[in-house]
Design a protein that fits this description.
Elements lengths: L2 H30 L21 H11 L3 H6 L5 H35 L8 H22 L10 H24 L14 H27 L30 H4 L1 H28 L4 H26 L4 H45 L1
Helix pairs in contact: 1-4, 1-6, 1-11, 4-5, 5-6, 6-7, 6-11, 7-9, 7-11, 9-10, 10-11
Length: 361
């Protein structure tokens, strides 16, 4: 792959990354406006078009009227009001289809042209299959809110979000591999400790992100609009005794989930601060130290945004900025992992190629 074709592949992958991030943020808007359960069927082909004509709209509205959300939350909703939330979810699904096409169509072109060799195509194909799986998982999530509760399962919502971030991370990683100026093979090798600490930070971030999804699924953001106290206390009583057995409270009780998500952010920040201190002591590469500094600044902004979301009772604009910042932190962490892992693999690959050339020479 020459520099020109590598650049075209890189641009395509970065556009895909941006599209996935946009879709995730728009998914947040769908949840915040309670629009996600407005379409009660998953029609891959016919769902491309919205209802056309009064009869079609009445039929669609009649299906929605059978759902728990209408019967419990939106009992007095009119057809015109229904159309508003319908179009939000319709646009969400339409964007999902478009993001898939943005990825798949250029992929076919690059494979046919040989820009991406078939022997190296497996990660690209995995991403393509990931888009299909993500669509099915999205419907699996929505279906959980059409049975007996006017909300989707927080577990399925977390799985849907983590899968989307997995697609985003893999696409970003491959884009970086096509970027010759990022962590070049001559970079300083990272120590095993630096690699372990970077993986540890990723694990903590994923736990915090999963709890963000639990908060969204349980509508737990509205439990308290004060900070740092909840109900006048730092630690509200009965966090682990609302449901039985006790461990269900960790993921299924709104107050407990809100409390954990609120304070686990500081654990993540503290870990990142400790990691930066250790990285300086073991003399990590300057580029790695700089990336950790960026993560610390982003975490500080993210925590501030989280506090504002609480104080302003989950204002939609603040909540969406909070979600977008969360993805920015996540992508910066993926970049850090690339710095401490990928360029070493690139060095080994280059060394093997040189050795192979010497043998054949």
């Amino acid at each position: 792959m020459n520099d020109t074709t590598s650049k075209s592949v890189r641009i395509w992958l970065y556009v895909t990354c941006f599209s996935i991030a946009l879709l995730v943020v728009f998914g947040g808007f769908v949840r915040l406006t309670r629009s996600g359960l407005s379409i009660v069927e998953w029609n891959v082909i016919t769902g491309v078009l919205p209802p056309i004509g009064e009869a079609a709209w009445q039929a669609e509205f009649a299906k929605y009227q059978q759902t728990p959300e209408f019967q419990i939350v939106n009992k007095g909703m009119t057809l015109d009001e229904y159309k508003k939330i319908y179009y939000v979810e319709y646009l969400h699904r339409l964007i999902g289809r478009l993001v898939g096409l943005i990825y798949v169509l250029p992929l076919f072109y690059f494979l046919i042209r040989g820009t991406i060799p078939w022997r190296k195509s497996w990660p690209y194909l995995v991403i393509g299959l990931g888009f299909a799986f993500q669509g099915a998982l999205g419907w699996y999530m929505v279906a959980s809110g059409l049975v007996d509760k006017p909300r989707v399962s927080q577990y399925r919502l977390a799985a849907h979000l983590i899968t989307a971030l997995g697609l985003l991370a893999l696409t970003f990683w491959i884009a970086l591999r096509n970027h010759p100026r990022v962590a070049p093979p001559g970079s300083r090798r990272s120590s095993p400790e630096m690699r372990r600490m970077s993986v540890g930070l990723l694990v903590l971030l994923l736990i915090q992100i999963a709890y963000g999804a639990f908060v969204a699924g349980l509508k737990a953001g509205h439990v308290s609009n004060t900070w740092p106290l909840m109900f006048g206390r730092f630690v509200p009583p009965g966090l682990l005794s609302i449901q039985e057995p006790w461990y269900l409270n960790l993921t299924a009780t709104a107050v407990t989930v809100h409390f954990i998500h609120r304070w686990f952010a500081f654990i993540v920040f503290g870990y990142a601060l400790w990691m930066y201190s250790r990285a300086r002591k073991i003399e990590a590469a300057p580029a790695v130290l700089k990336t950790i500094q960026v993560i610390l600044w982003l975490l500080g902004v993210q925590i501030t945004l989280g506090v504002l979301v609480v104080l302003f009772n989950v204002a939609i604009s603040l909540a969406l900025i909070h979600q977008a910042m969360g993805m920015t932190v996540f992508l910066t962490e993926i970049f850090l992992l690339y710095q401490v892992f990928a360029h070493q693999a690139a060095t080994a690959e280059k060394r093997a190629t040189l050795q192979e050339g010497v043998v054949h020479g």
